[in-house]
Design goal:
Layout (H helix, E strand, L loop, with lengths): L7 E5 L3 H13 L3 E5 L2 H11 L3 E5 L7 H11 L4 E6 L4 H9 L4 E4 L4 H52 L3 E6 L4 E4 L1 H7 L3 H4 L11 H12 L8 E10 L5 E13 L2 E11 L1 H55 L5 H32 L7 E3 L1 H18 L2 E7 L6 E3 L1 H17 L5 E9 L5 E8 L29 H11 L3 E7 L3 E9 L11
Bound molecules: adenosine-5'-triphosphate and magnesium ion.
Length: 524
C-alpha cells in the first residue's frame, strides 16, 4: 500500500463543518474518507468499511474519543487511531497514547500536522502488518519444522522398534536408554524395568562383561570401538543366560564417547540346530556300531564256512602231493580243489569288502549305484543269519533298473537295518521278500522289504521312526535303526513308507530318485 488511494480513513467528529473541511482536504490528498458525527456511529462505520486509519475527536457528546479508541483497539487492533485534542488537553493526549493511539494532533488542525500524523500512522500500519506477516510466516515455518522433526523422530522410533534384531542403546555412563521390542521379547524385560534403570553390565555376567569391554576396545572383532558378530551370553529377566550374537558400535560426538549401540541376535535356535545335527551324527554313528556288531556275528559264520572248506581242500591237495607223481586223474582232482579254494577265498573277500564299505567313513560320498548290487551285498552279509532263523528269502530285482545316486555304505546300512528288523519280527521263521522296481513315472526306484512277521501295533506305528523308540527287550534293541533309515533316505532326496498288519507282516518301502534325474517329474 503506497498511494493514498489505497487508504481508507474514518473521521469521527461532532462538528459538521470540521468533518466537511477535513473530508475535502483528505479526499484532495487521495484518501477514501468516511465520516461519522459521534463515537457509536463511527464504530459502526469502522465495522463496515474496515479503515486502516481512524481520526477521532476526543471531546464528543455521548461516547468520547478515548472510549472510541479503547473499543476500536479491542475490535480492530490493527487500525491506527489519531486523536484530535483541543489546545491544553495534554493529559488526554497522553492517555490516548498510552492506549496505543498512533498520534495526536491539536485543534485547530493545521495541514502540516495532519499530514505528518497521517504519514506516521501509515508507516506504523505498514510495519505492523509486515511484522504480522513475518510472524505468521515464522510460526508457519516453525510448525512445519516441528512437524517434520516429530515425523522423523516417530519414523526412527518405528525403525528401531520394528527391527527383527534386538536394539539396545546406552549413554556414555552405560545407562540403558534404548531397548526395542525384539530385545524385550528376547530378554523378557519390560521397558520400565530396564530403561533408565539398568546399566549395560547388569545384563552380562561379570566375566563376560569384562571380555565384552576388552574386545570392544581391541582391534580384533570388526575394528576399534566396534564389535562384529561377537558371540556372548546375556542375562534375561529371569536370570537365565541366553546365547546371543552382538554387533556393537561406540557412538562418538565431537570426538567424545557418547554411548553405545548394540544389535542383538538370538542364537538359541542356531544352537539347537547345531545340537540336533551333532545328535544326528552321533545317532548315525551309534547305529552303525550296533549294526556292525550284529553283522560281525553273521559274517564270522559266513567266513568260517568257506575258510573251513579252504582248509579242507588244502589238506586234500597236500595228500595228493604227498603221493608223489601226479596221475592225470589226480591232476584233475587237484585242479578242481584249487578252483574251489579260489572261489571260496573270493567269497570271503567279497564279504570282507562288504563289511569294509559298511564301516567306511561316515560322511556321505555320492556315487552312482546299481540297486541290484546294493541288494546283493546286503544279502551276502545277512544270508547266514537268515538261514539260522529259518527265514526263507526271495529276492526279485526288475531287469535293467535305472541307477540311483548316493552313498553305498549308508544305503547298505538302511537295507541291513530293515532286514534285521524283519528278522527280529520273525523269531519262529518266515519269509523275507526283497523286491526292487521302478515307479510307474520312472522318476524313482523302489526297494520293498517285506516280512511275514508280527506286524506293528497301530499304537507303535506313529513312533517307530523316532530315535530310541523300541518295543524290544532290553539288550535286544536300541531303537535307532529306523530313525537312521529315515535320516539317510531323506538326505538322499528319497522317502520311506511302511505298511503293516498285526499278525500278518510288515512292508517297508524305500524310494530313491533315479540318477540322472528324469526331467519334468517330481522327485519322491
Ligand atoms: N519289520 C518289523 N516288524 C515289526 N516291527 C517292526 C519292524 N521294524 C520295526 N519295527 C518296530 O519298530 C521299532 C523301532 O525299530 P528300530 O529299528 O528303530 O529300533 P529297534 O529295532 O527296536 O532297535 P535297533 O534297530 O536300534 O537295534 C521296533 O522296536 C519294532 O517295534
Ligand atoms: Mg532295528
Amino acid at each position: 500500500m503506497s498511494s493514498s488511494g489505497d487508504w481508507t480513513i474514518v473521521l469521527i467528529d461532532d462538528e459538521a463543518d470540521i468533518r466537511e473541511v477535513m473530508t475535502l482536504m483528505l479526499q484532495d490528498a487521495g484518501y477514501h474518507v468516511f465520516s461519522a458525527p459521534d463515537g457509536l456511529a463511527g464504530l459502526g462505520l469502522c465495522d463496515r468499511v474496515s479503515p486502516q486509519i481512524v481520526m477521532t475527536d476526543i471531546r464528543m457528546p455521548g461516547m468520547d474519543g478515548i472510549q472510541v479508541l479503547q473499543t476500536l483497539k479491542l475490535r480492530h487492533p490493527e487500525v491506527e487511531v489519531i486523536v484530535a485534542t483541543a489546545y491544553g488537553e495534554m493529559e488526554l493526549a497522553i492517555r490516548a497514547l498510552q492506549l496505543d493511539a498512533s498520534d495526536f494532533i491539536t485543534k485547530p488542525i493545521s495541514d502540516t500536522s495532519l499530514f505528518l500524523a497521517l504519514d506516521r500512522a501509515r508507516q506504523r500500519f505498514t510495519s505492523r502488518r509486515q511484522i504480522q506477516d513475518y510472524t505468521r510466516l515464522l510460526e508457519h515455518e516453525n510448525a512445519r519444522t516441528a512437524q517434520e522433526l516429530s515425523d522423523a523422530i516417530a519414523f526412527q522410533k518405528n525403525l528401531i522398534e520394528s527391527s527383527i534384531d534386538g536394539i539396545l542403546g546406552c549413554r556414555a555412563d552405560s545407562l540403558i536408554v534404548i531397548f526395542n521390542r525384539s530385545a524385550m521379547r528376547l530378554l523378557g524385560y519390560d521397558r520400565n524395568r530396564i530403561l533408565n534403570h539398568l546399566y549395560l553390565k547388569d545384563i552380562f555376567s561379570p566375566d563376560e562383561f569384562e571380555r565384552f569391554q576388552t574386545s570392544l576396545a581391541a582391534d580384533t572383532y570388526g575394528g576399534k570401538s566396534r564389535l562384529y558378530l561377537y558371540e556372548t551370553a546375556l542375562r534375561s529377566y529371569n536370570g537365565e543366560f541366553l546365547p546371543v550374537q552382538i554387533s556393537a558400535t561406540v557412538l562418538m560426538d565431537q570426538g567424545a564417547d557418547a554411548g553405545l549401540v548394540c544389535f542383538i541376535r538370538d542364537l538359541r535356535e542356531l544352537r539347537q540346530l547345531e545340537q540336533k545335527m551333532s545328535d544326528q551324527v552321533q545317532i548315525l554313528h551309534q547305529d552303525k556300531m550296533i549294526s556292525l556288531g550284529r553283522l560281525a556275528a553273521s559274517v564270522v559264520h559266513e567266513i568260517n564256512n568257506p575258510l573251513a572248506g579252504v582248509l579242507n581242500y588244502m589238506g586234500l591237495m597236500r595228500r595228493i602231493l604227498d603221493k608223489g607223481t601226479l596221475s592225470a586223474e589226480r591232476l584233475n582232482k587237484f585242479r578242481e580243489f584249487l578252483e574251489l579254494v579260489e572261489s571260496e577265498t573270493r567269497r570271503c573277500s567279497r564279504i570282507v569288502s562288504g563289511l569294509l564299505t559298511f564301516s567306511r567313513k561316515s560322511s556321505a560320498s555320492l556315487e552312482p549305484i546299481q540297486i541290484e548290487e546294493l541288494v546283493n551285498r546286503c544279502m551276502l552279509l545277512s544270508r547266514h543269519k537268515l538261514d539260522l532263523h529259518h527265514i526263507s528269502v526271495e529276492v526279485f530285482a526288475a531287469s535293467s533298473l535305472p541307477m540311483v545316486q548316493g552313498d553305498i555304505g549308508q544305503l547298505q546300512q538302511c537295507l541291513i537295518n530293515l532286514i534285521f528288523n524283519a528278522m527280529d519280527a520273525m523269531p519262529d521263521g518266515g519269509k523275507l521278500e526283497i523286491r526292487a522296481d521302478a515307479v510307474s513315472s520312472g522318476h524313482a526306484v523302489r526297494v520293498l522289504v517285506k516280512d511275514t512277521g508280527t506286524g506293528i501295533a497301530p499304537g507303535d506305528l506313529p513312533h517307530i521312526f523316532e530315535p530310541f523308540y523300541t518295543t524290544k527287550k532290553e539288550g535286544y534293541g536300541v531303537g535307532l535303526g529306523l530313525s537312521t533309515v529315515y535320516g539317510i533316505i531323506e538326505k538322499h532326496g528319497g522317502a520311506v513308507q511302511v505298511e503293516s498288519a498285526v499278525g500278518k507282516g510288515t512292508t517297508f518301502i524305500l524310494q530313491l530318485p533315479v540318477f540322472p534325474p528324469v526331467s519334468g517329474v517330481k522327485a519322491p
